[in-house]
C-alpha cells in the first residue's frame, strides 16, 4: 500500500484522509494540539457552543454527506425558520423574498422593507431598462452590480452578506468567485432582473429545503468524527517545516514536535494548509506557486460569544440574528441568536440565552487590535441599539481567528488555475483547503476529494 502524508488537520485535511482510507497508509500532521481548524466547540456558562463555523452548507452535498458517513447523520439538524435581517437605518429589516445573495428580484417587495431609500429602490427597478453586454473576464462585485443596481443596493443589500461569508469587501471581491450564479447570468448579457425572474419561474435551480444544517452538540463535533473514522495516524503538535522530493519521486517531510525534530517519508503529500503556509513549504519547489499563494490576502475576524440569563434579561430578541452593512459604521458585522436558531441548544440550556456577535472584515485591523473587554463592551452596546435592552451577560468570551478567511480578489479563478498548474509539475503533491474553490465547509470537503484522487494517481 502506498503512503500519504497530509499536512494540516483541519476539515480539509481530515476529509482528504477519509477519502484515502483503505487505499493508502495515511499520516496527518497538525501543528496545533487538536484537529479541526476553524471547526471548534467550547463552553460558556457551562454550555457547549461553536467557536468557529456553526453550520454546514446544505445546498451542495459534500459536507452533509461526509457528516452522515462518519456517523453524524442523526445529529444533522435544520435551523429555525426565520428571514435574513439587516440592521440598517435604525431597525432590523428583512431582505425581500427571492433575493440572490442580496440581489433583489422584486423591486416592489424591496420597497416595503425600508432597506433602501425611494431613490435606491427606483434605481434597482430601472435595472431591467439598462442595456447590458455579455460579461467577459472578471471584475469586482461592486464594479458590476453597482453599475446595474446602484451603489446603495450594493452597500446595503449585497455587502452585508459578503461580509458574513468572506469577511470581505464587495469592491475587492471577484464577481466570478464570490457570486458565480450572478456571473453566469451576466455572461449571457441583458438585464439581470428579468433573467432572475425567468430562472425562478422555470424552477431551476431549485434550492434544497434548507440552505444550511447544523450538528446537534456543535459543528465542532464534525472534524472529531472524521478523525475518528478515517483510520489515519494523526500527530498533533507536529509542524511541518520543510519538504524535499527524493530521487524516485518520494517526499520527505521535516517536522518539529515538542520532543524535537521528526523526519518522515511518503509516496505523496497533501497540503491542506492556508495559502500562506502552503506557500512557505512550496518556495524551494515552485517559485510560481509560492508567489501566487502568497498573493492571496486573508482577513482576520473575532467571535464574541455571550450567555444571558432568561430570568434576568430585560429583553430577548426574536429571529435567528442579523447582518450589518459596513456603510453604517458599526463595529459588528453580524449577530447570530444561537438559542433561537438551533433547537438543540435551546433544549440543552433552557434557562440561558446564547448569542454570538462577529467583528472583522478585511482592512479592519484597528478593530481587532482592541482588547477583548473593549470588543465585548462594543458588542453589548450595539446589540442593545439593534434589538433592545438585553442587560448584561452572565458570561462573555472572545475567540480570535487570525488570517482565518482567504479573500477571493478579482482574477481569483485564474490565480487558482496557475497555482494548480504549477503544483501539477510536482508529482505526488496535491493541494486542498479554503483558498481555492470556496471558503465554506462543503467547498473544503470538495477540494479534499480532488486532492485525494490526485495524490493516488500522480505518483511517478
Task: Give a short overview.
By secondary structure, the chain is of the alpha+beta class. The protein has 18 helices and 20 strands.
Describe it for me?
The protein folds into 3 domains: 3-36 and 62-72 and 218-296 and 409-457, FAD/NAD(P)-binding domain, CATH 3.50.50; 100-202, protoporphyrinogen ix oxidase, domain 3, CATH 1.10.3110.10; 298-406, Polyamine Oxidase, Chain A, domain 2 (Alpha-Beta Complex). It is 37% helix and 23% strand. The chain has helices at 11-20, 62-72, 107-113, 118-125, 141-149, 151-166, 175-178, 180-188, 192-202, 221-229, 275-282, 287-294, 338-341, 343-348, 365-368, 372-387, 412-423, 441-457; strands at 3-7, 25-29, 41-44, 47-50, 56-57, 76-77, 85-88, 91-94, 212-215, 233-235, 239-245, 251-257, 260-266, 268-271, 298-309, 321-323, 332-336, 352-359, 395-406, 429-431. The radius of gyration is 23 Å and the shape is globular. The mean pLDDT is 95.
Amino acid at each position: 500500500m502506498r503512503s500519504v502524508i497530509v499536512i494540516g488537520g483541519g476539515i480539509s485535511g481530515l476529509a482528504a484522509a477519509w477519502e484515502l482510507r483503505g487505499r493508502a497508509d495515511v499520516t496527518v500532521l497538525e501543528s496545533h494540539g487538536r484537529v479541526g481548524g476553524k471547526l471548534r466547540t467550547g463552553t460558556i456558562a457551562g454550555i457547549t457552543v461553536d467557536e468557529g463555523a456553526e453550520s454546514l452548507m446544505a445546498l451542495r452535498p459534500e459536507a452533509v454527506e461526509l457528516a452522515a458517513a462518519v456517523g453524524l447523520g442523526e445529529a444533522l439538524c435544520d435551523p429555525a425558520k426565520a428571514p435574513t435581517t439587516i440592521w440598517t437605518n435604525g431597525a432590523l429589516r428583512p431582505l425581500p423574498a427571492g433575493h440572490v445573495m442580496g440581489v433583489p428580484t422584486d423591486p416592489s417587495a424591496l420597497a416595503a422593507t425600508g432597506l433602501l431609500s425611494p431613490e435606491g429602490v427606483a434605481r434597482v427597478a430601472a435595472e431591467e431598462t439598462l442595456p447590458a453586454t455579455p460579461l467577459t473576464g472578471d471584475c469586482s462585485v461592486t464594479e458590476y452590480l453597482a453599475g446595474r443596481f446602484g451603489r446603495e443596493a450594493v452597500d446595503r443589500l449585497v455587502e452585508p452578506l459578503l461580509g458574513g461569508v468572506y469577511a470581505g469587501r464587495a469592491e475587492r471581491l471577484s464577481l466570478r468567485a464570490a457570486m458565480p450564479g450572478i456571473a453566469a447570468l451576466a455572461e449571457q448579457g441583458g438585464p439581470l432582473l428579468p433573467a432572475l425572474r425567468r430562472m425562478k419561474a422555470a424552477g431551476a435551480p431549485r434550492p434544497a429545503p434548507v440552505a444550511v444544517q447544523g450538528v446537534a452538540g456543535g459543528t465542532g463535533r464534525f472534524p472529531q468524527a472524521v478523525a475518528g473514522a478515517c483510520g489515519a495516524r494523526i500527530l498533533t503538535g507536529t509542524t511541518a517545516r520543510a519538504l524535499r522530493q527524493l530521487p524516485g519521486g518520494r517526499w520527505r517531510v521535516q517536522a518539529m514536535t515538542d520532543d524535537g525534530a521528526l523526519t518522515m517519508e511518503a509516496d505523496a503529500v497533501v497540503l491542506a494548509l492556508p495559502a500562506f503556509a502552503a506557500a512557505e513549504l512550496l518556495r524551494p519547489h515552485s517559485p510560481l506557486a509560492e508567489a501566487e499563494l502568497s498573493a492571496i490576502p486573508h482577513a482576520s475576524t473575532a467571535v464574541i460569544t455571550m450567555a444571558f440569563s432568561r430570568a434576568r434579561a430585560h429583553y430577548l430578541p426574536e429571529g435567528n440574528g442579523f447582518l450589518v452593512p459596513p456603510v453604517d459604521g458599526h463595529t459588528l458585522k453580524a449577530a447570530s441568536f444561537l438559542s433561537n436558531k438551533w433547537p438543540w441548544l435551546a433544549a440543552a440550556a433552557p434557562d440561558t440565552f446564547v448569542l454570538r456577535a462577529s467583528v472583522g472584515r478585511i482592512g479592519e485591523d484597528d478593530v481587532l487590535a482592541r482588547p477583548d473587554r473593549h470588543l465585548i463592551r462594543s458588542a453589548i452596546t450595539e446589540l442593545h441599539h439593534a434589538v433592545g435592552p438585553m442587560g448584561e451577560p452572565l458570561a462573555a468570551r472572545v475567540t480570535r481567528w487570525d488570517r482565518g478567511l482567504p479573500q477571493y480578489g478579482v482574477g481569483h479563478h485564474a490565480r487558482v488555475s496557475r497555482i494548480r498548474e504549477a503544483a501539477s509539475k510536482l508529482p505526488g503533491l496535491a493541494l486542498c483547503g479554503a483558498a481555492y474553490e470556496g471558503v465554506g465547509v462543503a467547498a473544503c470537503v470538495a477540494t479534499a476529494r480532488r486532492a485525494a484522487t490526485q495524490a493516488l494517481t500522480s505518483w511517478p
